[in-house]
Amino acid sequence: RASASVASFLASRNVARRPGGLRIVVLLTLAVALAVFAVDGWTVAAANRGDIARAEVGAAEVLHVRVASPGELLTAVDAADPSGTQALAAVVSSNGTGGLLAADASRLGAIAAWDPAWAGTSREAIGALLHPVQPAKPLAIHGSLRLTAAFTRTAGSTPLTFSVGVRAASGLPYQARFGIIEPGTSTYSVDLPPCRQTACTLMTFAWTQPVGIPASVISGTVVLRDVTDAKGPVDLTSVGLTGWRSVDSASPIRGADAARVVSSSDGALTVSIAKAPPDDATIEVADHPLALPVLQGSNQPVQDGGGGPFIVTTGLDSAFAPATLEGVGVLPRLLQQGTMADLSYAIAESSTGFDPLDYQVWLAPTASPEVRAALGRLDVVSTESVAATEDGLARSGPALALRLFLLAAVVALLLGAGTLLANAYVVIRRRAYELAALRALGADRRVLVRSARREQVVLALTGTLLGAVAGLAAAGLALEALLGTGGGLPLWLGPAWAPVVGLIVVVLGALVLVADIGARRTVRGAVPELLRQVQE
User: Fold this and answer.
1) What are the pLDDT digits (tens) for 492-519?
2) How does DSSP classify residue 255?
3) Could you check whether the bond before residue 278 is cis, i.e. omega within 30 degrees of 0?
């Protein structure tokens, strides 16, 4: 009579013969399913909101500033953060082809909140991927340029105009003519106004036929030496033979052999010219890639480069520029559209002025007050952050829907627990005499309490487990549609096991407590004196 099997037998018998228990199981199943769906959905959505905000903003904090040029922005950010770990310069061009984001790739890995893995690379590799090391370092030019050129003509008689191209600190290119190059050795000089206050970088030397003169084949050799600028000697041979390359500035792919550097030694740069119309004879400092390394959004159409090894992208000046596609995926700010490149190389690809640009400074979470103060001297137009964006997403439609689910789940669980407790009290009158008879026959009170408790626990456990399975299944089917595409990010769709298991444990604990209260109350009222009252 005090055996544990007696309690189990009585509990199973009562469950089997009570059709009302099925209604409790159904109610608990619905309540728990709603709760599991809400908790799993809220957790999954919260985790994905963080990733979406990081992709949409790009960095922990982004300052939108007003400056004159991309070069000025680069200079200002480099001066504010020489370490390269707290701030980076970026610009966005809405070029009509999905947009171009040009950012300082050397700092992306340390500063960006955006994860490079979303575009198939890594924080360690992104810098070298978009900003690969080049054969030459930039050659600085100050104020003016003076040099000696020895020209030996071997074919053709058409005059050639000799010119130099530099890029100002602003990023804008500037062309200056030395004049007509004469056979023999002559000294040429030119003033470079954009290079007076801040040094420019040397871009090109070019030999072109004057406009209006019939084009013809020209060949010969030019030796450049004794080069000086406003501050002293400039060594054109310091970049070596591989630091110069032949280009055709009129071609989008820019490869040509009309001019080639054949010797770079003893302070003299020897250029071989073999020019046939309509090619320009141009040599260029190889301090940037011939084709711009880019990442593209997964939905961005690839513009073919005409069957060659390159694709074509739209640069900061809205002109076509050759590019090499290094990866495809989700880009910061542009998401599945547009193109991403290194800022300094994108500037180097620009041959005219810049489009209207959105100038930005990306800040790391660890940006110091000193860096912020230095950047505060810029004209800051607006600010956005991952935290604010994530907070905005948390107030969006899907997030509000999940909040409603959570509220409904709490109400449903309270209703389920209350129903379980009410059920225990309702059966008191019906079973009071039965339990009183069992106690009169010698049944131990603790056995009867265990029997009543197990009866309620079986109902609670069945409803909870069925609800958990149904809730997880519903979340697996509905969450992807509820959360949307996430800008193409690889969304995590759960299940969120830790909070779901925690919820189930809490629900079961609460229901067991309710079952215990009901069982004790039921048995307490079932005393043998009830049988005497019936006899009387």
Assistant:
1) 777 888 988 998 898 888 877 876 776 6
2) B
3) yes
